[in-house]
Automatic annotation (TrEMBL):
Gene3D superfamilies reported in the protein's UniProt record: Glycogen Phosphorylase B (3.40.50.2000)
Species annotation: Hibiscus sabdariffa (roselle)
TM stretches of this protein: none
Protein name per the record: UDP-glucose iridoid glucosyltransferase-like
SUPFAM superfamilies: UDP-Glycosyltransferase/glycogen phosphorylase
PANTHER family in the record: GLUCOSYL/GLUCURONOSYL TRANSFERASES, UDP-GLUCOSE IRIDOID GLUCOSYLTRANSFERASE-LIKE ISOFORM X1
Domain of life, per lineage: Eukaryota
Family membership noted in the UniProt record: Belongs to the UDP-glycosyltransferase family.
Length: 443
């Protein structure tokens, strides 16, 4: 009788933030469907609920990490301390698996958890880097701060990337303290360079130039297998409770009339900005659905800075909730625009539903994503200042004026291209099959 073959075992090291947890679980789901068995190793912070994912094994590692109230104040410092704190427990955890006879085919790690590659090298295992942001960030992090602008731009020889207005991004990225940024850049780049492959939640058509540039700068294959949320929808990855009633509210609105507003899980705003946003939204005369995360407004628990009068006006025109089922919201026929901080997941989710975007990036890769949306794909407009008149005008331009029509058409065009990627012979389906073969070859 033929001996039954044990499935190849993958360890997936997750980073403990919403924009990382969701794509990691989606990737795990996709690989599980290809026959791999999966153990998810995660820091204690924002632990996923194993009962939502009985198909995976879970291992928690101590992170000795108390997150600051506003994570966006120092993202680089956050990455460095998390990696320092997690390196030893992660090593112990994986070593324990190896000692107990577990044959690990590969360790896939979120590239935010770059300490994992060192652990993998020490234990002579195979490491695969997961990029939950755009593939283009793989070019910026290693090269940007160390090269003069002209040298950098000459290395990135593609019109789409020139259109990103890299000098502006360079100025914005240099807002981080140099030594910490350099430490992170070096650790990150070394990890990705030493890995055996890179997995990106992207699509070939979306970042074509960047994907081929990445191949020149990193000597490892890169697999763009997105959009992960369409490839492997997964439940229960939300840290906050989703308010499902907002769907009932959307059901009552006219097609494509609603502007949906969300700044993701990390960005924060001041009290004055909250008031300006509320005023601008009320004045633009479009219905709006607004996700205001508890703690998103600095100095407040929720929306206390809005006066009772303003809350009343908001209640007539719009609907404020703490957290939405965002993918469902974006897919809803009533939603005609998305005012976003341009996190990568939100960007990809919006592309997949053909929703044009109003871009208000805050930090890090959000600036790059916004530049892609407004200058390269041209499926959105940038909102410069959080001032009521400016907000009102820009929302009208996107949602009502003739100017928005071409943007809407291009957004629908990207939606179709994104769907094609996951067809049988689409670029992401082919890439996932190649990735599966590559991982299996490590066993
Ligand atoms: N999200 C959600 N409900 C909300 C706001 C955000 O489900 O009210 C989800 C969104 O769908 C996305 C993630 O949170 O998958 C945010 O990730 P992103 O990369 O856009 O931004 P980050 O939170 O990392 O800044």
């Amino acid at each position: 009788m033929e001996k039954e073959q044990k499935p190849c075992h993958l360890v997936l090291v997750m980073a403990p933030f919403q924009g990382h947890i969701t794509p990691a679980l989606q990737l795990a789901t996709a690989l599980h469907s290809k026959g791999f068995s999966i153990t998810i190793v995660h820091p204690e912070l924002n632990s996923p609920d194993p009962s939502n994912h009985p198909e995976f094994a879970f291992e928690s590692i101590p992170d000795k990490f108390t997150p600051p109230r506003h994570l966006d104040r120092d993202v680089v410092g956050l990455a460095l301390s998390l990696n320092k704190n997690c390196a030893a427990p992660l090593r112990q955890c994986i070593e324990q698996m190896v000692r107990s006879g577990d044959r690990i085919t590969a360790v896939l790690y979120d590239s935010f958890m770059f300490c994992a590659q060192t652990v993998v090298d020490e234990l002579r295992l195979t490491g695969i880097s997961i990029r939950t942001s755009s593939a283009t960030t793989l070019l910026l992090l290693p090269l940007f701060p160390q090269l003069e602008e002209k040298d950098f731009i000459s290395q990135i020889d593609a019109p789409e990337l020139q259109a990103l207005q890299l000098p502006r991004l360079r100025a914005l990225l240099s807002q981080y303290p140099t030594s910490a940024m350099t430490e992170m850049r070096v650790a990150f780049t070394n990890a990705v360079r030493s890995s055996s492959a890179i997995i990106a939640n992207s699509m070939a058509f979306l970042e074509q130039a960047a994907l081929s540039n990445v191949k020149q700068h990193f000597p490892v294959p890169i697999f763009a297998i997105g959009p992960l949320h369409k490839l492997a929808p997964t439940i229960g990855s939300s840290i906050l409770t989703e308010d499902d009633e907002c769907i009932a509210w959307l059901n009552k609105q006219a097609p494509k009339s609603v502007i949906y507003v969300s700044f993701g899980s990390i960005a924060s705003i001041g009290e004055h900005e909250l008031i300006e946003m509320a005023r601008g939204l009320v004045d633009c005369e479009q219905p709006f659905l607004w996700a205001v995360r508890p703690g998103m407004v600095r100095g407040s628990e929720w929306i206390e800075p809005l006066s009772d009068g303003l809350k009343e006006c908001v209640g007539e025109k719009g609907h404020i909730v703490k957290w939405t089922p965002q993918k469902e919201v974006l897919a809803h026929g009533a939603v005609g625009g998305f005012w976003s901080h341009c996190g990568w997941n939100s960007t990809v989710e919006s592309i997949c539903e053909g929703v044009p975007m109003l871009c208000k990036p805050f930090f890090g890769d959000q600036l790059l994503n916004s530049s892609y949306i407004c200058n390269v794909w041209k499926t959105g407009m940038e909102l410069q200042e959080l001032e009521r008149g400016n907000i009102e005008r820009t929302i009208k331009k996107l949602m009502v004026d003739i100017e928005g029509t071409e943007i809407k058409n291009r957004a629908m065009d990207l939606k179709e291209k994104a769907a094609d990627c996951l067809m049988e012979y689409g670029s992401s389906s082919c890439s996932l099959n190649e990735l599966t073969k590559q991982i299996s070859s490590f066993s």
